[in-house]
Structure formats: structure tokens, C-alpha cells
Design a protein that fits this description.
By secondary structure, the chain is α/β, with parallel strands linked by helices. It is about 35% helix and about 30% strand.
């Protein structure tokens, strides 16, 4: 094999290896930034990952909001009218957060089954419901039959 041809083959091989490495880094980064949405029923059934960020949505259960004195910690329950999940959030809740409203929270599931939220998003007007929450609520057979949503 001639030296020029050998140099070209080595150069092409290095280019292919570099492109392969770039694609691998891009896919890894994309996979780390994916965030899935789960309903409360799916979380209770164990379909949600334990140590990964994901979003959970549902309606805040009436009478479930608990704010310990002199703390920013808030505990409340979310439901999709089938199963409930306890959520803990440390911080200031959105002004529109209240019982009986639809919310989406981003966070992780702890070992004891409590969802520890990093961010809580509340709906912004009376007619809006996050699409993920509306979709998961529509999947509930008793609500669809009653025409509740």
C-alpha cells in the first residue's frame, strides 16, 4: 500500500471515529435531559423511575395541603381520581396553587414513595388544565363515563 493511500485511510478512520464519538455524546446528552410525565396511578403502580427526574400531574386533593409552622415545606396529595401520591415541596408555591386545582410538578420519587418536587406549576386561568393532566384524567374510566372531563 502506498504511503499516501495509507494516510488517507487513517484520516478517514479518524474522521469516522470522531463523528461516532460526537453522535454518542449527543445521544447521551439528549437521554439525560429527557423528562417523562406520569400520572399518580402510574407512580403508585411503580412505573415511574426511582432516582430520575420526571413530571407528575393531577388534581390537588381537598384538605390535603399541610404547611408546618415556620417552614417553606409544603406537603399535599395529588390524585387522578383513582390513586393518590403525597408530594413534598420546599419553596414558595405559585399564587394560583390551591386545593382542587390541576398542577404539574417536576422532581424525584423518594424511597418511601413520596414525590419530592423541585418545581410546581399551577394552571394560569380558570379554563386551562395542563395537557398531560387532562390526558391522564381522561384515561380514568369512571370519569369518562360520567362525562366529568
Amino acid at each position: 500500500m502506498k504511503p499516501i493511500r495509507r494516510q488517507r485511510l487513517i484520516l478517514i478512520g479518524l474522521m469516522l471515529a470522531g463523528m461516532g464519538l460526537a453522535v454518542a455524546f449527543a445521544l447521551k446528552s439528549f437521554n439525560e435531559n429527557l423528562m417523562y410525565f406520569f400520572s399518580t396511578t402510574e407512580v403508585v403502580e411503580g412505573k415511574a423511575p426511582e432516582n430520575a427526574l420526571f413530571r407528575i400531574g393531577g388534581m390537588v386533593v381537598d384538605g390535603s395541603v399541610d404547611r408546618p409552622a415556620e417552614s417553606l415545606l409544603v406537603r399535599f396529595k395529588l390524585t387522578d381520581f383513582n390513586k393518590e401520591v403525597t408530594v413534598e415541596y420546599t419553596g414558595i408555591l405559585p399564587d394560583l396553587f390551591r386545593e382542587g386545582q390541576g398542577i404539574v410538578a417536576k422532581g424525584r420519587l423518594s424511597k418511601n414513595g413520596v414525590f419530592v418536587a423541585e418545581e410546581v406549576l399551577a394552571k394560569h386561568d380558570e379554563n386551562y388544565m395542563p395537557p398531560e393532566v387532562a390526558g391522564s384524567l381522561k384515561k380514568q374510566p369512571e370519569l369518562s363515563a360520567e362525562g366529568g372531563i
